[in-house]
């Protein structure tokens, strides 16, 4: 359901039914590519799943931290608090409460 919601509300979602099964499959293929290779996910610090899986996440986040710190040094009045936390998030679960219940049952 979560993935369907993401698909349904993406700007590229068609407003009319697909003309054929092939057209539907082609759209889903393109969507999956966009989702994994281009879409920056807020739950994983605005990197793509492909960047996370390839190991590029760390260098990207280190660079972002450096950019934010440099910007804060140039214009400290823009930050009333610290900068965004760009630390890697570690493990991510879709339904962590369900995983906890499964762990207890095991």
From TrEMBL:
InterPro entries: Integrase_cat-core (IPR001584), RNaseH-like_sf (IPR012337)
Domain Integrase catalytic: 1-49
Gene Ontology biological process terms in this record: DNA integration
Name the record gives this protein: IS3 family transposase
Domain of life: Bacteria
């Amino acid at each position: 359901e979560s993935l369907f919601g993401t698909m349904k509300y993406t700007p590229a979602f068609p407003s009319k039914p697909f003309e054929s099964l092939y057209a539907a499959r082609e759209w889903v293929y393109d969507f999956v590519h966009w989702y994994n290779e281009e879409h920056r996910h807020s739950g994983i610090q605005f990197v793509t799943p492909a960047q996370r899986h390839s190991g590029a996440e760390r260098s990207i986040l280190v660079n972002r931290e450096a950019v934010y710190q440099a910007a804060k040094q140039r214009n400290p009045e823009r930050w009333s608090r610290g900068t965004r936390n760009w630390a890697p998030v570690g493990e991510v679960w879709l339904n962590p409460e369900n995983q906890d219940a499964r762990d207890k049952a095991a």
